[in-house]
Amino acid sequence: MRPLIGITANYTDNGGPFRELGIGAPGQRWDLLPEDYIRAVERAGGLPVILPLTDPETALALAGRMDGIVFSGGSDLDPSLYGESPIEGANPPQAARDAHELPLLRAVLKGAQPLLCVCRGCQLLNAALGGTLYQDLEKAGLPPHSAAGRPLGQAAHRARVLPGTLLEQLVGAAEIPVNSFHHQAVKSPAPGVRIAAVDTDCEKVVEAIELPSRPAFTLGVQWHPEALVGSEPSSLAIWQGFLRAAGR
Question: Which PROSITE patterns is this protein grouped with (predicted)?
Answer without folding.
Answer: GATASE_TYPE_1
